[in-house]
Design goal:
Helix content: 40-55%
Order of helices and strands: HEEEEEEEEEHHHEEEHEHEHHHHHHHHH
Shape: elongated
Strand content: 15-25%
């Protein structure tokens, strides 16, 4: 009777086999894994993987990192790991205390956690939660992976702190400064961005929009420059900002060598506000007299002509036939758009001077106010042309749009620290702690 040849059986795949592949820990051995009951877990069970020191491997001091003899062993601790198939995973290890000749008796440093960290989460779980927190709201991440909101917050904060400590601030030549409203009651935050091509990111978040708020950014650059032995402030050659007096004062003091750029975004925005103010006042006056010429005309006047439909252009032409203050304000506003077509700062300056003279003779107080402001800030406006139109406030406003989107995703932030951590995590392009395997 012939026997059917049998194929050799492959060894069973164990959890610790997978961990050795994706999460190896130098000096330690995955001893055993088991499924244990856990009433606090959503599924009622969790996977526990026990570790032990490799034979002959001395522990490292959590203070200085030097290896030393074992003093004693503490009770076993549980460290949260990346969940597997919806099941909670924990690494179980009894840490040793090291008799360090430099620091004294210290608990050993374990490679699956950040140095000197007392967090019950492994570094892998911390980065895993922080990565998902960039895609979803923190509450959604907590619900999806069945952890607490505080665990997600601590994970993001830990990754952000690591990134701020290890980021490279050299090569900053252009920055943008602006403020955003972070809460009701005139509560603002000052944001500083790097605008260099290919490396645009958030550099600093500061509470308020005062002189001290922006000074904190330069103090941070000075402190970092001392550590690296480089002049980080002196390398900044271009600054984009609005016309907020506190920012102008600090920029003039700290960056006298830089071109301070007031670009078209804020200028056009202020001019549109002036035009709308003239329209609103005249529309109310005409309505009292029984005229409806300017009814529903706000966006006809504020939008660019190329964005208007055929019917809207027809109505706009009808409005422009009237001798109204709004029509004069509109023609002045449209006339200023030719300024941005110039390339030479000299000819742009002549055009701006001529426009300001015409606006000051318009007898329209909101328009005259804008013209006086443009005269006052003439040189920063012309700096946009001197910078070859490379940097503008549109980049800053694009970042601000992402900031507002982050606010909406989180339904606001209760504390300034939470907002600061979220913005650095979202816009800071910070380096993350190195891992042997990316879990997401």
């Amino acid at each position: 009777m012939l026997r059917q040849p049998t194929t050799p059986r492959e060894p069973a795949m164990l959890i610790k086999t997978l961990l050795n592949r994706v999460h190896p820990v130098k000096g330690f051995v995955y001893d055993k894994d088991q499924l244990v009951a856990d009433p606090s877990a959503p599924s009622g069970v969790r996977i526990e993987v026990h570790l032990r020191p490799r034979q002959g491997s001395a522990g490292a001091c959590s203070g200085c990192g030097k290896r030393g003899p074992t003093y004693d062993t503490q009770p076993a601790r549980h460290f949260g790991f990346v969940p597997l198939w919806g099941l909670a995973v924990a690494l179980v290890y009894a840490p040793r205390r090291i008799d360090c000749p430099t620091c004294g008796v210290k608990v050993e440093r374990v490679p699956w956690c950040a140095p000197a960290s007392k967090s019950p989460m492994t570094l892998a779980l911390t980065v895993f939660l922080a990565t998902w927190a960039r895609r979803l709201s923190w509450q959604d991440v907590a619900q999806a992976f069945r952890v607490s909101w505080d665990s997600v917050y601590r994970a993001v904060e830990s990754v952000v702190d690591y990134g701020l400590a290890h980021r490279d601030l050299t090569g900053i030549t252009a920055i943008g400064v602006d403020e955003v409203a972070r809460a009701k009651g005139q509560r603002y935050a000052t944001l500083v961005y790097q605008l260099d091509e290919g490396r645009r990111r958030l550099l600093h978040v500061s509470e308020g929009r005062s002189v001290k708020s922006l000074l904190r950014f330069f103090q941070m650059l000075k402190k970092t420059g001392k550590k690296t032995g480089r002049d980080l402030i002196g390398g900044v050659g271009f600054v984009c900002s609005d016309m907020w007096a506190a920012y102008l004062k600090v920029i003039a003091k700290k960056l006298p060598q830089a071109l301070h750029i007031l670009d078209r975004y804020h200028i056009v925005a202020n001019l549109n506000k002036a035009l709308d103010q003239v329209r609103a006042e005249e529309a109310r006056k005409l309505a009292r007299e029984g005229w409806d010429v300017l009814q529903r005309a706000r966006w006809l006047l504020l939008r660019r002509r190329k964005r208007l439909t055929g019917k809207q252009r027809f109505k706009l032409r009808q409005i422009l036939q009237w001798d109204l203050k709004t029509v004069r304000a509109y023609l002045l506003e449209e006339g200023l758009q030719a300024l941005w077509e110039y390339r030479s700062p000299t000819y742009a300056g002549r055009f701006l001077d001529a426009w300001c003279r015409q606006a000051l003779r318009s007898r329209l107080e909101p328009i005259k106010k804008v013209a006086r402001s443009l005269r006052e800030h003439r040189e920063p406006i012309l700096n946009w042309f001197r910078a070859k139109k490379r940097f503008n406030g549109g980049i800053v406003e694009g970042f601000n749009g992402r900031v507002k989107l982050r606010f909406r995703k989180a339904f606001g932030f209760r504390t300034f620290r939470a907002m600061e951590v979220a913005l650095y995590h979202e816009l800071g392009a910070l380096p993350e702690p190195p891992l042997t395997h990316r879990f997401c």
